[in-house]
Amino acid sequence: MDFLQPENWPRAPGFSWGIAARGRQVFVAGQIGRDHASGTLIKGDFAAQSSQALANLATVLASAGGTPEHIAHMTWYVTDIAAYKAAGREIGAGYKTHIGRHFPSMTMLQIGALLDPDALVEIECIAVIAD
């Protein structure tokens, strides 16, 4: 996986400007903060739901033989960008726990609502597992 840093651009803060990779592509559907053992959405704040959604991404990747280091791109859908920013430190801790120090290209969108009305965040990713 090659992390792309265009010449004369500043370093991206917490993500990569782009990634080039070859291999088996894995597309992980949007994950929310659902505890799949109990089937319930994690109650609580933005950070708790984000952490569980990231754990769910890692679990789906593992079922394809991948790890978080194989993630080439993530898209975050949040219902409240201010809540995301306010929980930044706690979200970062959950990110390190489930994804580590791997920073793929990322996109974040604030949206009006998610399918589950109590969900605050949904995260999807594209991973590339080397052949």
Could you describe the 3D structure shown?
The protein is of the alpha+beta class and 131 residues long. The chain has a single domain (29-129), classed as 60s Ribosomal Protein L30, Chain: A (2-Layer Sandwich), CATH 3.30.1330.40. 27% of the residues lie in helices and 31% in strands. It has three helices and eight strands. The strands form three sheets. A four-stranded mixed beta sheet has the order 3-8-6-7. It has a two-stranded antiparallel sheet with strand order 1-2. A two-stranded antiparallel ribbon has the order 4-5. A hairpin with a 4-residue loop joins strand 4 (34-35) and strand 5 (40-41). Helix 1 (46-63) runs parallel beside helix 3. The radius of gyration is 15 Å and the shape is globular.
